[in-house]
Amino acid sequence: MSNLQERLRCALQRNNREVAPCRCGGDVVTGARFKDHRGALVTVVVRMGYDVIYLRDGYHSNSRLPLKLFIRKFTEVKS
C-alpha cells in the first residue's frame, strides 16, 4: 500500500467515528420546565423553529437560545 493510500485510509477512519444520537428537541414544548447545571429553573415560553424562548424563575424578561444549545445546557424536570 502506498503512503498516500495509507494516509487516506487513516483519514477516513478518523472521520467515521460513532456519533451519539441527537435529541432533536421533540420534548422542548411550550410550558415545559427545565433546569441548568446550577439547578436554576426555566420555563419554555415558545419554541420557534430552531430557537427556544424561555423565562428564568425570578426574571422579568425572556431569554432566547438556539435549540441545539438549549438542549445541551438544560435538562428537563419531570413533574
Descriptive overview:
The protein has 79 residues and is of the alpha+beta class. The chain has a domain of 54 residues: Roll (SH3 type barrels). Helix content is 25%, strand content 29%. It is built from 2 helices and 5 strands, in the order αββββαβ. The longest helix is centred in the N-terminal third of the chain and has 13 residues. The model has no long low-confidence stretch (mean pLDDT 84).
Write the layout of secondary structure elements.
Layout: H1 3-15, E1 33-35, E2 41-48, E3 51-56, E4 63-66, H2 67-73, E5 75-76
Antiparallel strand pairs: 1-2, 1-5, 2-3, 3-4
Tell me the structural class: alpha+beta
Give the helix tally: 2
Percentage of residues in helical conformation: 25-40%
In CATH, what is the class of the domain at 26-79?
A: Mainly Beta
Q: What is the CA-based Rg, rounded? A: 20 Å
* SSE topology string: HEEEEHE
Fraction of residues in β-strands: 25-35%
